[in-house]
Amino acid sequence: MIMPLKLYLVRHGGTSWSVSGQHTGRSDIPLTPQGEAEARRLAPRLQAVAFTHVLTSPSQRARRTCALVGLEPKAAIDPDLSEWAYGDYEGRTSADIRAERLGWDVFRDGCPHGESPAQIAARADRLIARLRALDGNVALFSHGQFGAVLAARWIGLTVVEAQHFRLDTASLSILGYDPHHPEVAVIAMWNTSA
Q: Does the residue 1 lie in any domain?
């Protein structure tokens, strides 16, 4: 019997840049000791689930989170789970960027020399198409802003709507389908912590 697809979306544990609010796209920042502790606290919740697939962003912060919850042996790296490419805004805070570019919003405006909202939507949609071919429980280790975009696109919203989907470090969210209407994609749980 085929099990319905259920996506367990995990944002990586905290880093020095997630604490400071700096945009961390392609910079490969490690977890802080606190971020490692956050990730370990997720382990009991995730080890209780039988996963058919485990996918992780190539970044060390996502891979380390995956390892600390005990799922690294099953994990495959998927570049489509990478964080938004911030280009010229890499390492900068939103407040700093808005001081130069009034009203800037990554989900609406994208980043110069980084990804645009159309590019991030295409990447999320490509990943979703591959995920929908799977069944059972799938763990995804990713990032805050890409995770928000993935959730928005999962339920058919535009990228700009992802600004309403906050993801804390070492949080767990579940994307799936309505059991009474299996063709309707839903967010079954959002931004919970251990």
A: no
